[in-house]
Design goal:
683 residues, alpha/beta, TIM Barrel, Thrombin, subunit H, eight-stranded parallel β-barrel, six-stranded antiparallel beta sheet, 15 helices, 25% strand, disordered N terminus
């Protein structure tokens, strides 16, 4: 036997080639992500993850780890919020627990954690650390991060520039899912308006609200438009280009998403990456096994706001979901008749049948998206594709519904039921070899990563099969029965002197023992990457002055930056020291550009050049008013506002309550105070 095997996957110095990184709200979803081809899964721990309601017990993480390691896949635990000083000790204890549970890496935002005595767990720099420049990426690598998540806003040339400066850390990039309009870690609108901090995993999603936009003269430019709401990220067409630019970990957004989403989107990118590997043999997955599916992956069938590849190929005009942040679904047909309590429809050619409990949508003449859940769906004429649906609500609740209106479907119960079943099978290829031993037989299994296991059985008396051909076929048949395992046979070599007659029960027991030994050997061979050592002496931070934008919320984070040469260190916005007007959001998205009001767009246009200026705009939702200011040199927009008085008052109440309870809240203040901050009205 001479299988073509590269060096084993699990060597300690191994860095993944191409990694598909999937989200998991819970362990069960994480297990299905692995089954559908994920090379790694990121999941929230018991606390301090950037999704407030997506925590998981240590026991569940351990269960997920054991399943992932069977395939050489890895589990990353998110600890990507900023922490108060009084939260550092519980966070350190949580890190110890998830490390002992077998987690492979920790995704971190708060630099204070690097000043703690943590177990030797691998560290990844979260997208919340706002990595936009080669200098920032190089610094984080030198500080001890082995994997860094680049900002979603980077273009291919900018990614290449980062890759040229980073020689030890893996570059990770979001390829699918919801887009935060702000640079990650640079949005404080939620905290300023509600006290719910996006940097602490509790964003109120003000960016998805409708706003009225006015110019300095008070003229309305847009009325009730979702001008800060982005379409969803989809880099399906750019995977090869991203590989060439230096990306090695392809990340799917969605730790709040359901099982069906994770199955479908993981399978979609698994297929695309496998096709890329076939075309480019020098590339390979970072884990073992091949996933097959019982369905055809289709990202358009999950919740989405339309798709964009954002800034990867440069600034695009159509990146916003300005009409609605909701999921319209896929067009299925149009209305032919409206009855007293029913709607008749004709479906487009090739559309899947309607189902009871499907959800339909349509747009009114005012472009408002209206949802219309189905109670019952009845086929009227199969040849003509005519259907009758009875909505769950009276037709009077759908005033915009009319004949000829196009109907879409954003919940297909047939698709939902398909993904509720077992929908993937992931198998690791093995070579089997049967040999004689002085006492009987030995079965050796070697998997596609080079891990080997051997089992033996005693046979007091060997008898040759009466029919050699049938005997050989029987041996191959019983040895190759791997259907209930995670393995599939590539080749079975019979290296015995003769095709012996062996009772099926003996062969089955020998095979089962060999499989058990191989599974154990694979788990034993899995090596967690060690913590990358920090460069000594410490690399200076690229800047010597930090404002609230650096999110320094505890004294240990302050010590980290001071140790790296920063001289002036502002406190996090959550420390409530930036009480005047401040940039509550910094974003690459430009409302002026999206509305064709950008001075650069007007450049060279006769009669327009020079008349369009990047003057501030105002956006308003209810009582909330924010100012948009435009920094044209880096081509960025700042959303400017003040912290609300009730947020400050609530902070004071919470601090007093913690003092009264004997567990005072402690956090970094650039202007130290021995008493809780007093509420004030911004000037």
């Amino acid at each position: 036997m001479s299988p073509a095997i590269a060096m084993p996957l699990f060597r300690p110095d191994f860095r993944p080639d191409i990694e598909l990184l999937s989200p998991a709200r819970d362990a069960d979803i994480g297990i299905e992500a692995i089954n559908h081809g994920a090379d790694a899964v990121y999941i929230g721990g018991p606390a301090f993850g950037a999704r407030a309601s997506a925590g998981n017990s240590v026991g569940d993480i351990e269960r997920l780890v054991k399943h992932a390691h069977r395939f050489g896949s890895r589990i990353f635990v998110t600890l990507n919020t900023i922490l108060r000083d009084d939260e550092l000790a519980p966070a350190r204890e949580m890190v110890r627990q998830v490390y002992e549970a077998g987690a492979d890496a920790l995704i971190v935002q708060d630099m204070g954690l690097l000043e703690l005595d943590l177990p030797p767990i691998d560290l990844h720099a979260s997208t919340q650390t706002d990595i936009r420049t080669p200098e920032k990426a190089r610094f984080l690598q030198d500080a001890g991060f082995s994997q860094i998540v680049l900002a979603r806003e980077l273009t291919l040339p900018q990614i290449q520039a980062v890759a040229a400066q980073v020689d030890r850390a893996t570059l990770e990039f979001f390829v699918h899912g919801a887009l935060c309009v702000a640079y990650s870690g640079q949005c404080f609108v939620s905290h300023a308006q509600t006290g719910r901090s996006a940097n602490r995993g509790d964003c109120s999603q003000a960016c998805r609200l409708p706003y009225t936009v006015t110019d300095p003269q008070g003229r309305v430019i847009a009325h009730e438009q979702h001008v800060l709401s982005m379409k969803d990220n989809n880099q399906s067409a750019n995977l090869a280009a991203l590989v060439d630019a230096g990306i090695r970990s392809f990340k799917i957004e969605g730790r709040y998403k359901d099982m069906g989403y994770v199955k479908n989107i993981t399978a979609h990118y698994r297929k695309l990456l496998d096709e890329l590997f076939e075309a480019r043999p020098e590339l390979h997955a970072s884990s073992a096994g091949r996933a097959t599916f019982t369905f055809t992956p289709d990202p358009d069938r999950n919740f989405n706001r339309g798709s964009t590849d954002y800034f990867v190929n440069g600034r695009q005009e159509d990146i916003g979901a300005f009409d609605t942040p909701k999921h319209a679904g896929l067009p299925v047909g149009w209305v032919t008749k409206i009855g007293a309590d029913y709607v008749d429809m004709k479906l487009y050619e090739g559309v899947d049948p309607l189902n009871n409990n499907d959800a339909l949508t349509f747009n009114t003449l005012q472009k408002d998206l209206v949802g219309m859940p189905i109670d019952t769906a009845q086929l009227l004429n199969e040849g003509k594709r005519l259907w009758r649906v009875v909505p769950k609500e009276p037709l009077s609740t759908y005033p915009g519904l009319r004949p000829d209106v196009v109907i879409s479907r954003n919940r297909d119960m047939g698709w939902v039921r398909l993904l509720e079943k077992k929908s993937a099978d992931r198998r690791i290829g093995v070579w089997l070899r049967l040999d004689d031993t002085p006492q009987g037989l030995a079965l050796t299994l070697t998997d596609e990563t080079g891990v080997t296991a051997r089992a033996e059985v005693d046979l007091p008396k060997k008898e040759a099969a009466r029919d050699a051909a049938k005997g050989e076929a029987a041996l191959r048949e019983h040895l190759g029965k791997l259907g209930a395992t995670i393995f599939t046979a590539h080749e079975t070599v019979l290296a015995t002197r003769k095709p012996w007659f062996v009772p099926p029960g003996v062969l089955n027991a020998l095979r089962r023992e060999a499989v058990e030994q191989l599974e154990a050997a694979r788990l034993a061979a899995h090596v967690r990457l060690p913590r990358q050592p920090e460069v000594q002496p410490p690399t200076p931070y690229p800047e010597d002055t930090l404002t609230y934008l650096a999110n320094v919320y505890n004294a240990k984070a302050r010590d980290f930056y001071a140790r790296h040469g920063v001289k002036v260190i502002g406190a996090a916005y959550e420390s409530h020291e930036a009480l005047g007007e401040a940039s509550l959001m910094i974003t690459k998205h430009c409302v002026r550009f999206s509305m064709s009001l950008c001075p650069k767009q007007a450049k060279g246009v006769t009669g327009v050049q020079g008349t369009v200026r990047a003057e501030p705009l105002t956006i308003q939702n209810g009582d909330e008013v924010l100012t948009l200011k435009f920094d044209c040199k880096p081509c960025e927009m700042h959303v400017v506002g003040r912290m609300k008085k009730n947020v400050l008052n609530q902070a004071v109440r919470e601090e007093k309550a913690s003092l009264a309870a004997g567990v005072p809240m402690q956090f970094y203040r650039a202007r130290p105070s021995t008493t809780p901050p007093r509420p004030c009205t911004p000037p």
